[in-house]
Amino acid sequence: MLVAFEAGSLIRAFVLFALYPLLFLVDDELSIKIMVMVSFFGIKKDGFRVGSSVLPKFFLEDVGVEGFDVLRRGKKTVGVSKLPQVMVDCFLKDYLEIDYVFGRELKVHGGYFVGLMKDNKNIIEHRINEVLEEDDQTVYFSNKFAKHDWISCSKEVYVVRNGEKKAWQILPKERYPKDLIFHDGRLAFRPEPLRMLVMFMWFPFAILLSIFRTIIALAMPYGALIAILAFTGMQLKLTNNNSNPDVTSHDHKQHKGRLYVCNHRTLLDPLYLSFGLKRPFAAVTYSLSRMSEILSPIKTIRLTRDRDQDAKTMDKMLRLGDLVVCPEGTTCREPYLLRFSPLFAELSDHIVPVALDSYVTMFYGTTASGLKCLDPFLFMMNPNPVYRVQFLEQIHGVSSQASETKSTRFDVANYVQSEIGKTLDFKCTSLTRKDKYLVLAGNEGFVNSTSNKR
């Protein structure tokens, strides 16, 4: 279902959902073939990244502690799956650290999957026998027994029944061999049949609700729109941890506005900050779709990734009023903070860190490989999206610090990152926008603009 929805479309996912009754009536092998045909037919091979960007998150949520402990006992691990290799390879190798992975190969014509699997079972068995040496003491671990030479010679054989698996404990995130920091896709829930039915029933109403919420956000004054949006299910939880009750005052000495520095959860971060302060202000961003830029109720300014040019742009905007910046440069869904660009530390002496967090139950309002113009709409299609906005203690930039205690711009950026991390209980990292897009989209995350000419 995830492949059909994320790599295909809503219609493809609905077709697969409609076939669920048939899938329960046929045997496992035919069921897999039907699902593969519906999910992969016509998908471009080079553009398929669901196996590395979407599926690992859901696979990890299905790993049991008991099975994981058995797996970690082996010196050499071999993973065999009935699913296509492109679906399981990244998860098994990168996240479970399995040495060898053997899955079904998909047929390709003209660079596109045709929805058929190659009959390579004998090839897989031969390759497994090549990997396993004669003196290896093999342990077979599966949810179904199969007749193979390398299984019959195994020292130990574990066959897990469905009832036993349901009693397993889900592997906690702290025990993941590799931290799951980045993942893509739109679905924020496990695509089980009943949940998918609810989603398909909700979808038409969600489109109308999203349009209504957008109109309210664009047309109504702050005093009214917050109450109306709350009535539709959108929640804003505001907390002011700043000892200065007036976080909206201006720097009269330098005739500059206040600089709000936020972590980045969705494209709606500046908008929710504006709702919290009940007034509009400008926001700078590295990438924003033309549609989002046109519909934004607050002023948005594109940055070029040229440090000197961006510094001049932000300084100019600060002299016109308050400004909000998200120095991570891109969104992150999981409880991690990416590296903060230190440029903001040089531009203002009145810096207000703002900790942001969001919660959705049905659709993610961010994407690395999809249409970014749909991000705000999909976020507002959730029944009860929640945003938490927390203002932290104001700090000074590098220009106003005493010479004997003066910090560098990197020190200020790292301090702001750590304070936001402590407030949200997020883990700070040194990862960047480039790292995220290389993992999720296979590129460095640049958009079509003049900045790409450099």
Structure overview:
By secondary structure, this protein is of the alpha/beta class. Helix content is 40%, strand content 15%. It contains 19 helices and 15 strands. The chain has a 7-stranded mixed β-sheet with strand order 7-14-13-8-11-9-10, sandwiched between helices. Strand 1, helix 8 (85-95) and strand 2 (100-104) form a beta-alpha-beta unit. Helix 1 packs antiparallel against helix 2 and helix 12 (193-219) packs antiparallel against helix 13. It is globular and about 75 Å long. The chain starts with a helix and ends in a 14-residue tail after the last helix.
Q: How widely separated are the two ends? A: 41 Å
Which class best fits the helix and strand makeup? alpha/beta
Strand fraction equals: 15-25%
**Could you list the spans in which at least 5 consecutive residues all have pLDDT below 50?**
449-454
Count of helical regions: 19
